[in-house]
Amino acid sequence: MLEPAHHADVVIVGAGVAGLSAARRLTRAGVTTVVLEAAPYVGGRMTTEKVDGFRLDRIGQLLTTSYPELRRTPGLDGLVLRPFVPGVLVHSGGRHHRAVEPTGPRRARGALTAARALATAPLGPRTARTAPRTTPLGGALDQARLGAALAKLAATPPERLLARPELPAAQALFARGLPARTVNGFLRPLLSALLCDPDLTTSSRCADLALRSFARGRLCLPEGGAEVLPELLAAALPPGTVHTGVRVTAVSTTSVTTADHGEVSCRAVLLATDARAAADLLPGLRVPPFHQVTVLHHAATEPPLAEPALLLDADRSGPVAHTAVISHVDPSRAPAGRALISSTVLGPPPDERAVLAHLADLYGTSTAGWETLAVHHTREAVPAMPPPHDPRRPVRLLSGLYVCGAHRDTSTVQGALYSGRRAARAVLADLGAGPAHGSGQLPMAA
Question: What is the CA angle 225-229-234, rounded to 5?
Answer without folding.
Answer: 130
